Amino acid sequence: MSRLRGAVVRATAFRPTAAEAIAGVVLALLLVAALWPNLLAPGDPLAVSRAEAFRPPSPAHLFGTDESGRDIYTRVVHGAAESLRIGVLATAIGIGLATVLGFVAGLGPRWLDFGTTRLVEVLFAFPGLLLALLFIVVTGPGVLSSTIAVGLATAPGYARIIRSQVRRTAAAEFVEAARVLGRGRFWIITRHVLPNVTAALFVLATLGLGQAVIWVSSLSYLGLGAVPPAAEWGAMLAAGRTYIANFWWMTFFPGLAIVASAAAATVVGRGIQKRNRSAA
């Protein structure tokens, strides 16, 4: 009876909430839009029609049109590929660099841990977006620069979390038992430390995706990333801000896409994090 009760409790714990289910659907739609945009919007996101300029949302143009008559719905859907690709690459750069720093600090000798931790703390003291802006000032604006900048700016925060997880795992009893049995350092890292850190990495990547999309869109809005007429959400916001008083839909729908993608990734990441804690 107790086993049955435990199974019911575990099954309930892993059942997604309404918010998580909605977030999952949003992420699935964004994935379809990023990989197969023509399934949702078969038009050309760069097609210009001056006669259709500044059309409000209607059955013919679900999200309205911009100053050049381009269909905003088509541009938002096709912009998912650009925005999410940049966000995923920036997250991968941040997680990759943070993993190296976290493992070096967590498994290295004391002096190396001290030096790496102090470096991470100095970088972490800077606001992330300011750190990204400083990098772009040095390298110049552009999509590649903004992607690398966001990845580098998010790495210090991730590195602190990964270092903590690595040190906690390295001090566990099963790792000590492996050392007593004469297992090598590489064997312990690949068989014990890395698998136990992978769950944390997945959660960080999910949460970081939403943050990266917002930051990359912010840089594009400032003219430091993708620039109009690119079908990228931040660039669309920048193009529509001049007309926001009279043609609200030009900024509302790209902004809604940014908020929805970031919120959905955060909700899913928090859900995975909660379930990892319950399983532990």
Describe the 3D structure.
The longest helix has 37 residues, at 185-221. This protein is mainly alpha-helical and 280 residues long. Helices cover 75% and strands 0% of the residues. The two termini are 23 Å apart. The model is unreliable at 1-11 (pLDDT under 50). It has eleven helices and no strands. It has helices at residues 2-13, 18-35, 37-40, 72-107, 110-125, 128-139, 143-170, 173-180, 185-221, 233-240, 249-279. The chain is elongated and about 75 Å long. Helix 7 packs antiparallel against helix 9 (185-221) and helix 9 (185-221) runs antiparallel to helix 11 (249-279).
How is this fold's topology laid out?
Blueprint: H1 2-13, H2 18-35, H3 37-40, H4 72-107, H5 110-125, H6 128-139, H7 143-170, H8 173-180, H9 185-221, H10 233-240, H11 249-279
